[in-house]
Amino acid sequence: MRTYWLGGALAASVMPLWITACGPAPAPQPKTHTNSSKSPAKPKPAAKAGPSASRLKVIAFYDQSMGTVAPDPFALIEAHPGLVTYLSPFWYEVSATGSLIAKPEGNAATLAARDHLPLMPLINNAGGTDAFLHSATTRLAAVHHIVTLLKTHPYVGVNIDFQGLKAADSTDLTAFMKALHQAMPAKDVLSMSVVPLNSGSGESSAYNLAQLNPLVNSMVLMAYDFHGDGTPPGPVSPYDWVKAGIAATLKAGVQPSKLYLGIANYGYLWTDGSTKATTIPLKVMHQHKYGVYHWSPTYKEAYDTYTMNGTRHVIWFVNDRAAVDRIRLAERDHLAGVAFWRVGYEDATWWDAVAKALTTPATTAAAARRPATPRHLKKALNAPAHRAGNTLQKSASKTRRTLKGPTKKTLIAPAHKAKTMVKKASHTRP
Fold it and tell me: What CATH number corresponds to the domain at position 188?
């Protein structure tokens, strides 16, 4: 499952860390994303800076809990006008009775309107419940509330992202999506997030892709969390696994013109030997040691290890280089687009690399960055380490206004120790 990283987790994730290392062979436990999309006009470019003409559409799943952590995600989107096709914030959940639970919206709607970003809210199942699916009455209640939402708000559609489903939910899930498809306003987009068929978990069997395909405008393949919280350390989104997931989805009957490839922009931190992992947004990780990592040519993903107080830690993460490789996969298979999970986790370097990949043909793209080597590792480590204390302290002073208790205390502490901890980190190839 995807981890919903909240303010409390910020304290843990800002702890000295910071990049990832190899683990045992992937233990099947992935998650997928699906988004339906008709094709409303692309967002008008914001003033200042020319629009970026992307060949792939882009769904940006937005986590507003990260909006107060620098850098501001909307400022990064504005720096690349015209790149995001749909903004999909986490605003609603379906309860066990079929009612809708509205989450705090913050200022995302105002900022989206300012930047001419079409809103396509994400709708989860509250607490992973599947109870509302098992009754025609509660299914229709949920459909009614979603359609009412679309008729009373300036949304272009919705993304259905139900998590934790089982094989026994398949028939009822298809019945729900059929009822929603029939009731949706004609011009609105119905998008759906799905788990890869090769996920290795029973959750993927809840999605009958052949039957769901004609009911949606787009699907988001949640091609990440192959490793994560609950698994041993390992790649979050192994490249060959992603390729196989796309192939299986297309073979199941989903047209390439409907499929969006879900791409992560975060990593996981493990204590070596543990299956407990902490989600690390890229923009938090990069405040520690930006750009210093090992690269796995097998998994096309970044990793590193460090040892602190005698304990070895492991990080795997989908960085900007890995994101570009996955964008090229979407292009190769002529998919509709890509879906970023999730905006608010990234930084300017990630956006610049992604924007370039989306607007530059692969044949003329710049060569990938070389991985760190022992010869220049020390120099690369020392520069970010020297600035880490100040960088973190500025971020901490901003964030602590919204945090209390242990979270506040933990967040500030690493800022004073970051240089020492990063220098002590030992980097060994697994």
Answer: 3.20.20.80
At residue 101, the 3 state secondary structure works out as: strand
User: 266-271 and 277-281: which strand pairing?
Assistant: antiparallel
In a domain, 17, yes or no: no
Among 4, 127, 125, residue whose Cα is nearest residue 62: 4
Residue 56 has pLDDT above 90, yes or no: yes
Q: pTM of the prediction? A: 0.75
| Radius of gyration over every alpha carbon of the chain, rounded to an integer in angstroms | 21
Alpha helices (H) along 264-308: 282-289
Residue 224 DSSP class? B
Evaluate whether 256 touches 329 at the Cβ level (below 8 Å).
no
- Cα-Cα end-to-end distance for the chain: 26
Q: Give the separation between CA 385 and CA 389, rounded to whole angstroms.
A: 8
pLDDT of residue 2: 53
Return the biggest CA–CA distance within the chain: 66
Instruction: Answer yes or no: is 64 within a domain.
Output: yes
What distance lies between CA 385 and its chain's CA centroid? 27
Residue 53 lies in a domain: yes
Q: Contact, 249 vs 209, CB < 8 A?
A: yes
